[in-house]
């Protein structure tokens, strides 16, 4: 049994901690408040019993290094508030690199596709990072800094990138703006072209890929795309949600960009979505062939990921 340190107890961090615990590993979960892993609607009793919870600031480099001492792997699964990425990610990223260097733990980071910028065609890992948004620039800098430390022999690292998430507790424009309305039988609206293909990544598959990349030294020094099923448009996803939930037929309309800009005057999350509209107004498809072949991870079917998303929402809504 080896020590694995997970920073962040959101959907990905919780799934990673639970999966490691189920494998019999020693797990230390670090959050600011010492929070428990987010429950899965399908988890078994006692699944999280051996997860040690620690209250600490992940951006405190020395504290994080102390908590990572003796660990074989350090998983970055934290997520600063969307509008605070430029201020909160740099110190957290630097602390993670420091902790990995001092402890010798492999650093595996949960990333996304923002750093590529606007891409024509499927997004593969060998596309140059050309971010066209502030958030994309932040993500690109985090990875290039970690990679530079890896190439200098200071740390060992890899990054695991997924598209918008499905799964218990997953947050995306779909899960926030569309899914609740569909389940309530109400009309939903999304700031997107509703009929273009879009990739959806299951949080459980992110956790599997993080753990696989940490354990395989041939996986270090590069980025990997989480095994992700064929893309599905927002309209098709909403239709599928209604069918799986036994809800009335989905009704959905496209929100014009101007409405998002007006909403951004009052809501920081809406404001931050404006610069990533290219991901929602045109095809946004991830190619995950490399990780599927390397790690043998078969992507979870979208229907199954949706069932968990629905169950998670209903469980939260009932409390």
From TrEMBL:
Residues 6-216 form the NAD-dependent epimerase/dehydratase domain. It holds the Pfam family Epimerase. InterPro entries: Epimerase_deHydtase (IPR001509), NAD(P)-bd_dom_sf (IPR036291). SUPFAM superfamilies: NAD(P)-binding Rossmann-fold domains. It comes from the Bacteria. Gene3D superfamilies: NAD(P)-binding Rossmann-like Domain. This is NAD-dependent epimerase/dehydratase family protein. It comes from Kribbella capetownensis.
């Amino acid at each position: 049994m080896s020590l694995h340190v997970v920073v962040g107890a959101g959907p990905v961090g919780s799934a990673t901690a639970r999966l490691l615990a189920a494998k019999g590993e020693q797990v230390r979960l670090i959050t600011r408040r010492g929070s428990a892993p987010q429950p899965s609607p399908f988890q078994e009793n006692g699944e999280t019993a051996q997860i040690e919870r620690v209250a600490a600031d992940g951006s405190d480099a020395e504290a994080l290094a102390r908590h990572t001492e003796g660990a074989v792997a350090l998983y970055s699964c934290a997520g600063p508030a969307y509008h605070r990425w430029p201020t909160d990610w740099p110190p957290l990223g630097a602390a993670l690199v420091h902790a990995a260097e001092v402890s010798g733990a492999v650093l595996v980071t949960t990333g996304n596709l923002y750093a590529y910028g606007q891409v024509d065609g499927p997004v593969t890992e060998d596309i140059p990072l050309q971010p066209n948004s502030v958030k994309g620039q932040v993500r690109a800098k985090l990875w290039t800094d970690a990679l530079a430390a890896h190439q200098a022999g200071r740390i060992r690292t890899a990054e695991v990138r997924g598209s918008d998430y499905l799964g218990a507790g997953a947050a995306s424009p779909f899960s926030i703006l569309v899914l609740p309305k569909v389940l309530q039988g109400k009309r939903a609206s999304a700031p997107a072209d509703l009929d273009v293909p879009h990739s959806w990544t299951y949080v459980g598959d992110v956790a599997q890929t993080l753990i696989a990349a940490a354990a395989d030294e041939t996986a270090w020094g590069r980025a990997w795309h989480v095994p992700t099923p064929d893309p599905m448009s927002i309209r098709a996803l909403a239709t599928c949600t209604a069918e799986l939930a036994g809800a009335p037929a989905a009704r959905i309309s496209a929100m014009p960009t101007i409405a998002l800009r007006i909403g951004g005057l009052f809501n920081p999350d809406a404001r931050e979505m404006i610069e990533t509209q290219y991901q929602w107004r045109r095809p946004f498809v991830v190619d995950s062939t490399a990780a599927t072949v390397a790690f043998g991870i078969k992507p979870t079917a979208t229907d199954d990921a949706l069932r968990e998303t629905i169950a998670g929402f209903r469980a939260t809504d009932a409390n």
